[in-house]
């Protein structure tokens, strides 16, 4: 979910905070692996970590129906951060709210983010971010951020302008709203116009240009395995691996890797700038419209045919460290 005001193209490759202490304790006690992730039902608990991993943060959204996300999350509202670029820096047309019509837990273990359009044609939706901004890989370690998500189930002209996203942004952005892309951005899951396609993107360095080819970013995409991204839940995962001689970033859907960026692929100073700060915070949102120009899809622009009311469902979000 790229930031300040620009358009950006995407290249296509491949086939193509309510953190709960009980979750961490249970996970560490269980010590079992991440098996059955694709087939677990909606409302499943945060998976316990594989051996050697620690659950650093987790939310399985088990609040009462109609409840807001828990206290470990903050809700972003309006047309942008105060003092930052309008339209959240990407030309989005919606206004974000904390209204339960846009944002609530469903009582069945899911967070629900729903774009709405009122009688005047104005769009609203929601965006949340973790209060914590210290998620990072330790020296010699690995960070894993993952979520089990069902994208808005809408299609064809009714989907025009839908832009759901699950991503992480460098925490220095909270102090300097014009520091993008130097502070780094990891787009773990993005989708546009309800294509059956997940995009994974790294943003870094300077814009325009730089070693992350801004405003495009270093991107790849692929279709969701077995069922479309809209028909079913899929697990989207990002890893930042500092355990080898060369650091590497990796993107997965349902355990299948489809994108990677190595430290050697990026300017040394740019890599240092995006990895040496305190860490990242995690975001979830459904934008309407905006500058996600994929070379095939074009800008996400809602039309009169765009159908409001199709939610993104989030079963869980988890951050693991090894």
UniProtKB/TrEMBL annotation:
<dbReference type="InterPro" id="IPR000757">
    <property type="entry name" value="Beta-glucanase-like"/>
</dbReference>
<protein>
    <recommendedName>
        <fullName>GH16 domain-containing protein</fullName>
    </recommendedName>
</protein>
<keyword id="KW-0732">Signal</keyword>
<dbReference type="Pfam" id="PF26113">
    <property type="entry name" value="GH16_XgeA"/>
</dbReference>
<feature type="signal peptide">
    <location>
        <begin position="1"/>
        <end position="44"/>
    </location>
</feature>
<feature type="compositionally biased region" description="Low complexity">
    <location>
        <begin position="10"/>
        <end position="21"/>
    </location>
</feature>
<comment type="similarity">
    <text>Belongs to the glycosyl hydrolase 16 family.</text>
</comment>
<feature type="region of interest" description="Disordered">
    <location>
        <begin position="1"/>
        <end position="21"/>
    </location>
</feature>
<dbReference type="InterPro" id="IPR013320">
    <property type="entry name" value="ConA-like_dom_sf"/>
</dbReference>
<dbReference type="InterPro" id="IPR050546">
    <property type="entry name" value="Glycosyl_Hydrlase_16"/>
</dbReference>
<feature type="domain" description="GH16">
    <location>
        <begin position="39"/>
        <end position="322"/>
    </location>
</feature>
<feature type="region of interest" description="Disordered">
    <location>
        <begin position="100"/>
        <end position="125"/>
    </location>
</feature>
